Amino acid sequence: MLEVPTLELEERIRQELEENPALEEGAEINEDTDVDDLNDDGGNNDDMDLDEYMMDDDIPDYKLKVNNTSPDDKKEDIPFSIGTTFHEYLIEQLGLQHITEKERQLAEYVIGNIDDDGYLRRTVESMVDDIVFNAGVQTSDEEMQKMVFLIQEFEPAGVAASDLQECLKLQLERKVYRPEVSNALCIVEDYFDEFTKKHYDRIKKNLNLTDTALKDAITEISRLNPKPGNAWGGNLLEKSMSVVVPDFYLENDEGKLIVHLNNSNVPELRVSSTYNELFQTYTERKGEKSSSMKDAVTFAKQKIDAARWFIDAIKQRHHTLLTTMKAIVTFQYRFFIEGDDTYLRPMILKDIADITGYDISTISRVSNSKYIQTEFGVYPVKYFFSESMTNDSGEEVSTREIKKILQDCIDNENKKKPLNDDALADVLKTKGYNIARRTVAKYREQLNIPVARLRKEL
């Protein structure tokens, strides 16, 4: 329960309400009958002992569900989509082609091997072998290659390419002729390695291009789509997963920070009074031992136990989440007041575990896939955790603070002569952060910033 974000929790509650008739929406009501009391038969051996009766085969289903799955295991219900998927779109275009039935089979097999990015990362030879074994269709490399070429003419441009170079080439070949398009095609076909390594001087010299012509050609390439399959927009699940619903809201009341749990769409839950009445009926008719009565009581107890367990789990989740988030906000108070990354203190899972008394694994589950809405924007809870190091003044500073300074250095560098890792290390040293070059390289990679050579611009 702890690791489930708000959106998934709402769906989990709806599912439980549908599956368990003993669980219903609404505030809890006082129950006159205690399920545990009903298990006491006063020592009369002739009466049914529910504890004995429910041993072995009659253990409630929810108790048989062992929690032995990894936190990384995801159980997702895929929503039904009425839209056309990327692969369906390719099949639709195939339907417009005048080809034989065998060619259609081959083409459909090719489409089935195209990944979500739009690439065909399998060789013609391997597909020829597979279709013989899987579908019993005898074909040749030439026939299969013909179908690959056919699909490469489909929309979106660049589909069914084997690699990035071919993908860009296919897109450029469809463009209306212009000098910059022609130059871009030459670069992609003959100087792709130099292009990826940003050896622009070599390209300019070999193609005899001016600075302006080279810049126009590179601009043309940069406008192409490296993942034509993604241009289709993805399915409904991917779109829904891109929507962030905060699990917490932070209110700043004149310097007093108040954490609220986002329960706007989480209903109150209670055990159904109807099911409790089944037990009341049993106590009044205790002498009856019909199998139908036993089945009814057993079923009701299973459902009530499951409902109570679920309600307690939700309450425990709310309490644990709030306690943990309040500890994080208190620890990072200056950041939540100012909104500046440089105010983030070094903080690891153990720091919050020590404050709250929870296990480190519990803090990790709370932090995973959770977001908090602040006046400065929405942040993942994991954002506030970082390692520490000591600056020249002997102060302990967050590695996130160092990364922010590193990002600023790169953002403000001369893009014609970008700073390499040694130069970045020197800049950080002048600011009081004595960091080795390899550490700078590690932080740069964590920020998804390429090496200096690839940051170079004309």
Give a description of the structure:
With about 450 residues, the protein is an alpha+beta fold. Helix content is about 50%, strand content about 5%. The radius of gyration is 32 Å and the shape is flat. α16 (about 350-355) packs across α17 (about 360-365). It folds into three domains: about 1-30 and about 245-385, no CATH class; about 85-230, no CATH class; about 390-455, Homeodomain-like (Arc Repressor Mutant, subunit A), CATH 1.10.10. The chain has helices at about 5-20, 50-55, 85-95, 100-110, 125-135, 140-150, 165-175, 180-190, 190-195, 200-205, 210-220, 235-240, 275-285, 290-330, 335-340, 350-355, 360-365, 400-410, 420-430, 435-445, 450-455; strands at about 25, 250-255, 255-260, 270, 370-375, 375-380, 390, 395-400. A four-stranded mixed sheet has the order 3-2-5-6. Strands 1-4 form a two-stranded antiparallel sheet. Mean pLDDT is about 80; it is low at about 30-85 and about 235-240.
% residues in beta strands: 5-15%
Order of helices and strands: HEHHHHHHHHHHHEEEHHHHHEEEEHHHH
Radius of gyration: 32 Å
Shape: flat
State the helix count. 21
Provide mean pLDDT, rounded: 79
Largest sheet: 4 strands, mixed
